[in-house]
Amino acid sequence: MKKLTLLGGITPRQFLKEYWHKKPLLIRQAIPGFKPALSRDQLFEMARRDDVESRLICHFGKQWQMQHGPQGELPSLDKKGWTMLVQGVNLHDDKADALMQQFRFIPDSRLDDLMISYATDTGGVGPHFDSYDVFLLQAHGQRRWRIGPQKDLTLIEGMPLKILKNFQPEQEFVLEPGDMLYLPPHYAHDGIAVGECMTYSVGFRTPSYQELGEGFLQFMTESIELSGRYADPDLEMTNHPAEISRAMLSRVAAELEKIRFREEDIAIFLGEYLSEPKPTVFFTPPARPMTMERFTQAASKRGIVLSRKTRMLYRGKHLFINGESFMVSRSDKAALTALADGRRLDGAEIPQVSPDVLEALFTWYRDGWLELA
Ligand code: SIN
Ligand code: CO
What we know:
373 residues; 9 helices; three-stranded antiparallel β-sheet; Malonyl-Coenzyme A Acyl Carrier Protein, domain 2; nine-stranded antiparallel β-sheet; Jelly Rolls; binds cobalt (II) ion; binds succinic acid
């Protein structure tokens, strides 16, 4: 495996073994000559859209204030101590998406999104911790990070955002454009802008087991099949008509214990769950879609690419795309897994796929889930 400048000259395997979930890593010039994907004004423009999640955080005096987007008028650029965070920029911008792709040594099922923050001098979100790992890439200007491994994660009550009560930083670094800081989950940190700055955060998904459990049970309601209906030919007379009898309880328990799930059910649930786009995501179908015939011809020549917004995963013979699952035949598997891993498929592959898959590709094209390359 290749050593990556992005990881300070170590291989992804080494990074995962030594740092991932374990300890911070500061990488000077992770991306030498880094140029921001978006200008300040483009970021502000994005924060005004209603299909983009954003937060404006003002720390004026001792007060913290937070306002969710879409943003209207922002404070003046001369005013110190405010920051604006825009979530999911990779869904809307090719350069931001390309940057995220560099982190695909970590699986798509774990990658969340690229957040971009803009801050005026002294701006930041306060000392806090996150429950996921994060890569903090300095994009423009300087930011001073103070970090610490503290166990006391008590937060100040009554704040509009998570602020640590007793922040005890142990290390401090000033990041320049192209520098990057990796932090494991629950590592306390505070990043303060030194003059105007922009920071990119590559964040990860860490669904709670509670959330997964609730989702799985909901998923299972669609697939359980129990036959028969309650019956009690042996019913006995009762002097306690309000009591649920032991006999009834045992009979129902015996039937419900027939509910079984296999690892394959969990795989299908996980694939559908993890490939489901966030509720704010809307796909843009082609304005004048081609006919199936024209699409097949054009795709065979040019190839296809997944939309930035499409989430595509697979496990065994199951393929998942934007919350839907499909069983894939052995002969189609190579092409579809190549599309999922590479997020594009060469034209030469298109005539090889079965008519069913071709039809699915056409539907995904019409829904804006993929495009011609
Ligand atoms: C920021 O970019 O200001 C905040 C990122 C973070 O601390 O997670
Ligand atoms: Co953070």
